[in-house]
Batch of 2 targets.
Target 1
Amino acid sequence: SQKIEQNSEALNIQEGKTATLTCNYTNYSPAYLQWYRQDPGRGPVFLLLIRENEKEKRKERLKVTFDTTLKQSLFHITASQPADSATYLCALETGTASKLTFGTGTRLQVTL
Amino acid sequence: DVKVTQSSRYLVKRTGEKVFLECVQDMDHENMFWYRQDPGLGLRLIYFSYDVKMKEKGDIPEGYSVSREKKERFSLILESASTNQTSMYLCASTTGGLEETQYFGPGTRLLVL
C-alpha cells in the first residue's frame, strides 16, 4: 500500500518568509495529489489539487509542485502570515474514485 | 456551500457501551467516509459508502460498523466501545467521480473510559 511521509516536526518560520512543506510517497505515482489545511479541533479543508501531468499549480499565495520522478510534492506559502499557522496534510488518490490516502501532516507555525 | 455536520463535538462513553456517531451532508453527495485521527498516525479510513445501503471496509474497520439508510446520512457504530477507540472521528463526503475533493465535518472527539 502507499506510504506517505510528511515531516512530523513542526515548521517554524517568520512572518513574510516562504514556508515549504514536503510530501514524499513510496509506491506508485498517483494520478493526482491534494493538499488540505487543518486547524486544531476542526476537520481538514481542501486547498489545492495537482495532477500527475502538471508540474506546478498556484492559488493566490499558495504553490504546489509535483515531481513524479522524485515521488514528491512541495507545498509553498509565500509571504506567510500568522493566520497561516495550521497543520497541512497531503493526500493521494488511490485508484478508487474519491478515496484518498492521507499523510500525517506537518504543523506550520508562523511567528511575528 | 457544502455542509457536513456531525451529531456531537465531544462525547464521553464507558467501555462496553454501544456508540452511534451521526454524519449528515446537505449537498446530495454520493460518497461518504468515516475516518479516525490520532496523533502521529494521521487520518485512517474506517469505512466508506458509495451509495445508499452500500458500504466498504477501509483500512481499520475492526470494532466498527456503519449504516447508510438515506443518501444524506452516514452513521458510524462502535458495537462495544473500548478505550483504544478514544480518538477524533471525522466524516467526509464527495460527489463521486474523478478528482473529487473531500468535504469534512467538524469532527467528534470521543473519550472512552
Note: The interface with chain B takes residues 8, 31-32, 34, 41-46, 49, 51, 89, 91, 93, 97-105 of chain A (CB under 8 Å).
Target 2
Amino acid sequence: DIHMTQSPSSLSASVGDTVTITCRASQSIGSHFNWYQQKPGRAPKLLIYAASTLETGVPSRFSGSGSGTDFTLTISSLQPEDAATYYCQQSYTTPGFGPGTRVDIK
Amino acid sequence: QVQLVQSGAEVKKPGASVKVSCKVSGYSLGQLSIHWLRQPPGEGLEWMGGFDPEHDEKIYADNFQGRVTLIDDTSTDTAYMEMSSLRSEDTAVYYCAAAREYELLNNYYYAMDVWGQGTTVTVYS
C-alpha cells in the first residue's frame, strides 16, 4: 500500500498570507494526486487533480505542484472562507488519503 | 450535472448490519464510478471500496473485504453500501463519491469530483 503523509498537521495564518501544505507519498505516483478541502460538517470538495490542475470553479489563489513523491498545495492571499481541513489523495492505486492539515484563520 | 443524495442517519447495535443508499441524478449510475468512504468522528477519510472501470469490477479495501458489499441498482440509479457485523469502531460518517476520469496530454487521471452529503452511522449498545 502507498502511505501518504502531510505536514503540518495544523496551521494558523492571517488573511492575506500565503500558506503551503506538503504531502509525501511512500513511493512514486507520478501526477496521480489530488487535493480536497473539507469544512466542518460538510463533504470534501475537490480542489486540484493531476497534482496541479485546478478543478472548475476553484479560486485561482489555490495552486498545486509536484510529481513523483512530493507535492505541495499553496493558498495565496488566504481568505476567511479557506478555513478548513485539506486532504491529499493518491489515485495511482486504490485511493489513499493523507491525514489532513487543518487551516485556521488568526 | 451529477448529484448524489444519501439516505438518512442510522443507529445500530453491535453485530447488526446497515445499508446506506446513494441516489444518483443528472447521470445514469452505469455511467459513473461510485466509491464509498468513511470518516470517524474527528478523524480523516478512509476509502472503503468502489468501481474500477479499468477492470470493470468492484474493488474493496483490505480492511473491509468480506464485511462490506457494494450494490448497484441501475433500474433506480441507486448505489448501496451494506456493512455487516457492525462494531462501535464503525461509528462514522459514510460518503459516496463519483470518480471522474480526466484526460491530460494523453494521460488519464481520476479524482472524486462529486460527493454525497454523508450519512451518519452510529453503533452502540
Note: The first strand of chain B starts at residue 3 and ends at 6.
